[in-house]
Amino acid sequence: MQLRYLLTFLCPAMLAVSQGTNSTTGALGDARPVRNNPVIGETWVASFDLPAVLGTVTAVASTIGINYTVDVTGLAVDRGPYKYHIHIHPVPESGNCTDTGGHLDSYVRGDSPPCDSALPQTCQVGDLSGKYGTVAGPEGLKEFNDPYTATNKIQLGYIGGRSIVFHDASGGRIACAMLEKVEVSTS
Ligand SMILES: *[C@@H]1O[C@H](CO)[C@@H](O)[C@H](O)[C@H]1NC(C)=O
Ligand SMILES: *[C@@H]1O[C@H](CO)[C@@H](O)[C@H](O)[C@H]1NC(C)=O
Ligand SMILES: *[C@@H]1O[C@H](CO)[C@@H](O)[C@H](O)[C@H]1NC(C)=O
Ligand SMILES: [Cu+2]
Fold first, then answer.
1. Which of 27, 28, 37, 96 has a CA between 20 and 30 Å from the CA of residue 49?
2. Is position 94 within any domain?
3. CA–centroid distance, residue 69 to ligand 2 (Å)
4. Domain membership of residue 87 as a residue range
C-alpha cells in the first residue's frame, strides 16, 4: 500500500522532470560562452590543399569565443551538401582523416539527436556546420562567431591540437587539416 502510494506520487513527478530536461544538453550541461581568450585577434588557420577542398578555415579569438571564416573552393556540387567540424585529434603524418577521431564534444552530448541550430549551446562544440550551416559547393563561404570555442587552454572548447574535417553528403571524410596558430612576426 505504501509502495503503491509512493509510485503514484513519484511517477508523474519523474515524468515532469524528464519532459523539462533538454534531451540534447550534454552531460556537463549546455556549452558556456568563452570570455577569457588571452589575446583578442589571435589567429589560427586550417589550410586545405586538395583539389576537392582548397582554401582555409580561419579562427580569430574574439571577446566572446571565436570568429570563423570558412573560405574553400573545389567542392563537387553533386557530392554536397558538405559538413565541417572540429575533430579532436591532429592530422597524422599519413594524412588519414580517420585518425582525427570524433567531434570536439566538450560537454559530452554525443552525436544524436542532431544539432538544433536554434539552440547552438546544446550542440557538440565542434559541430560547426550543425550550428552555422553546411556548404553546398562549389564554394564554401561562411563567416560566423562561435561563442563556445576557445583559444584559452583552460577552456573546454580549446581548439589547440584539433583539426577541421570536411564531410561529403555520404559522411565520408574528404579532407582534413590541423588548426595551427599563426605566429605574428614582430620585425
Ligand atoms: C533546451 O534548453 C534551452 C536552453 O539551453 C532552452 O532554451 C530550451 O527551451 C530547451 N528546450 C526544451 C524542449 O526544454
Ligand atoms: C568578431 O565578429 C564580430 C561580429 O560578428 C565583431 O564585432 C568582432 O569585432 C570580431 N572580433 C574580432 C577579434 O575580429
Ligand atoms: C585510414 O585509417 C583507417 C583506420 O586506421 C583505415 O581503416 C583506413 O584504411 C585508412 N585509410 C587509408 C587511405 O589508408
Ligand atoms: Cu566531422
1. 37
2. yes
3. 11
4. 27-181
